[in-house]
Amino acid sequence: MIASIKDNDELQMNAYYDGELDPASAIEFERRLADDELLKARYDRLLSLRRAVRSLPQFEMPPGLQARINAALDADRPGQAGRPGQAGRLTRRSWSFQALAAAAVFGAVISSSVMLTIERYDQREDVASQIVAGHIRSLLAPQPFDVASSDRHTVKPWFTSRLPVSPQVPDLAAQGFMLVGGRVDVVGHDPVATIVYKHAAHTVSLTTRPAGQSVSDQSIAGYNVRSWNDAQFTYIAVSDLASADLTTFERAFSGGSPAPEVK
Amino acid sequence: MFDEVFLPHMAEAYRLAQWLTGNTYDAEDVVQDAALRAFRGIKGFGAVNARAWSLTIVRNAAYSWLMKNRPKAVVFTDDLSVAEQQELEHEGPYGTRIETPEEIALFKADAEDVQRALAQLPAHFREVIVLREMNQLNYRDIAEITNLPIGTVMSRLFRGRQLLIALLGDRK
Hints:
Structural class of chain B: mainly alpha
Shape of chain B: globular
Number of helices of chain B: 9
Strand content of chain A: 15-25%
Oligomer: heterodimer
Number of domains of chain B: 2
Strand content of chain B: under 5%
Structural class of chain A: alpha+beta
Mean pLDDT of chain B: 77
CATH topology of the largest domain in chain A: Phosphorylase Kinase, domain 1
Largest sheet of chain B: none
CATH class of the largest domain in chain B: Mainly Alpha
CATH superfamily of the largest domain in chain B: Winged helix-like DNA-binding domain superfamily/Winged helix DNA-binding domain
Number of helices of chain A: 8
Largest sheet of chain A: 7 strands, antiparallel
CATH class of the largest domain in chain A: Alpha Beta
Mean pLDDT of chain A: 77
CATH topology of the largest domain in chain B: Arc Repressor Mutant, subunit A
CATH superfamily of the largest domain in chain A: MucB/RseB, C-terminal domain
Number of strands of chain A: 7
Distance between the termini of chain A: 63 Å
Number of strands of chain B: 0
CATH architecture of the largest domain in chain A: 2-Layer Sandwich
Number of domains of chain A: 2
Shape of chain A: flat
Radius of gyration of chain B: 17 Å
């Protein structure tokens, strides 16, 4: 059936667009994309659709909501587990404007400090050993990355399609650190972007986390760990390189990022 | 436990609820309801994927809320007549006409148009597109959250995007 063949094309195009094709099919699809003008036009249209959809303003949580939910949860605490939906029906839309204004001010403060507190609970040194474990695991796999590319314009979108926030991916070949790809590691319950560089025979895994979560520089299982921050991210580099070389790497990376702290 | 599993995803939960219900007040109710459900059900969390788990609860809370308060807003494919269902799942109202490359224009639609077009999509298309584009989840997580086979997620994304393209195209 002609229609179903065409549908398969469309499904494959959508899967490629969503980064869900296996590497072999993705390469095959790219080849077809290069040859087929019609397919390319349809693909470009999908890309422009994504741009349009993703550039929509994000809905922000109303400032008072977090506080009201906390209140509802507190009310729920003393043994009311058997009555779903009852305790939760709060008096909504009944607050006065005064209360609303107050909530707007305090809610913003509360919700951001709640987030910060949660992050601080992280056992930081446990994070370092999880990241080293990710590095070791990657070295045992056939390849230390999920997306292989020395082109930062491939690696960056690959992260963007998988993670809520993704770092800049500078190519540092000129400084002796060649970009070879990227992978997603899991730290705690959160997927994080890890950029993979090669320096001679050495692999450097650079894991990124939200800013302000640096771990202390240390050596775990024979791998050196070095971490630093910029305005957006905490970077944690793991490698069997000597720690002096990791310092060089940090300098190269900070110099290669668009928003460097280092002058 | 609840603080670590559900709370970090609250902002995202709210965004999803807003897209599914279509307005701020309903989204607030839904997120609050979801938070309570999550709080009570935290023991059922299997420590696999906190984000997908949290969003599943939000999605289910949104649908129960809609079913109760605005049942007409939720049309599942199962509720459609056979003909309508076929049209949606297999043909698409905008058909399988072969276009020429010249006909395929890129979008320059403004945010308002895009937002309206998304709101017009039938709920089961909108949810997969929102989960994919706004929440940027992969197919496996979307399948888990919507409780659908991955194949259905794929075909709904594809049909949903076609519909969006058609809706936005009509406006020009």
